[in-house]
Amino acid sequence: MSIVPNKNYRSAVSSTSSHHKTSNAAPALPDSLRNQNGGATPLSTQTNGKHPLETKLQSWDQTQRNRDLEQYRRVFGLAEPMKREMELAIVQNSDFNPLSQSTDSGFSTSLHRDILLNREASVDWEDVYQGSGIVGGVSMGPDVHGAIEKSLGI
After folding, report:
1. Which domain covers residue 106, as residue numbers?
2. Most exposed: 13, 48, 76, 121, by fewest CB within 10 Å?
3. Keyword annotations for this protein (predicted)?
């Protein structure tokens, strides 16, 4: 598993490094005219703007799914992860309930999908608060007709 960040992550930039030609008046400032790099570049462009664990957390569910499928392949052979992926594709393509709200991942909340992903016993935020559905301070409820039109492409 690759949970630990790479060693090439830069959290600090030295302003007195020897790879830049420095100014004679102020040795901490790079001399952009001697370097001929087209102008001064801010130090913030040389550092990474995000924490190295942020990308790991964004793809956490997919990483865990890939790890589970790899473990199934090692224990049960190639047929088990293929069967699970095919069953999940069947459920995602055929299971349509216009009253269920769509989550951020794009899939509607489905008990079948939760069972196939081994999440039937977990309670997420979306299970309790299924979308706001509030327009102008009034709860409108699910838009059944809009969901059917969207699924049929009307």
Report:
1. 78-123
2. 121
3. Chaperone
